[in-house]
Amino acid sequence: MLITEIEENKRDYLPLLLLADEQENMIDLYLDRGTMYVLQEDGVVKGECVVTDEGEGVLEIQNLAVAPQYQGMGYGKALIAFVADRYRGRYAILQAGTGDSPLTVPFYEHCGFALHHVVKNFIVDHYDRPIYEGGKQLMDKVYLRKNL
Fold first, then answer.
1. Nearest CA to 46 among 96, 104, 93, 4?
2. Is 139 left (phi over 0), alpha (psi -120 to 50) or beta?
């Protein structure tokens, strides 16, 4: 498994980015200011992660996606572990903001994150169409944190 930083042509990974954030203009809000990492194995891109400095010692995972055929195989968890190891000592907190998904929130909790706060109606107020995951319409943005 190889994880590398992508400094140019980040939009080449748009199909993967859109798995985690379904609206392109929302990705545009953080992609240029974020640091992107891509996980490859046997020359195949299997996942990606974009992190941003949110100030006050907080590093935020803005986008974390694993290609559908590789989900549930530990690649997302490996990307989180890589980011945590890489930034430990430079940041105090690793934060993830995500929709109130019955699939995604438990994944982050399994990776050691705990609920920090919720922004009510963020998804319905900022996305141009309803977003569903795990049979549930997403409404709120949930922020989870773990100490580095």
1. 4
2. alpha
Q: How many angstroms separate the Cα of 48 from the Cα of each of 6, 54, 84, 122, 147?
A: 10, 19, 14, 24, 22
The pLDDT assigned to 125 comes to 96
Residue 46 burial (10 A CB sphere; 0-12, 13-18, 19+): buried
What is the rounded distance in angstroms from the CA atom of residue 128 to the CA atom of residue 121? 13
C-alpha to C-alpha distance for 144 and 148, rounded to whole angstroms: 13
Strands 35-41 and 58-66: unpaired
Which residues are CB-contacts of 35 (< 8 A; sequence separation ≥ 6)? 5, 50, 51, 52
Furthest C-alpha separation in the chain: 42
Q: Please tell me the predicted confidence (pLDDT) of residue 105.
A: 97
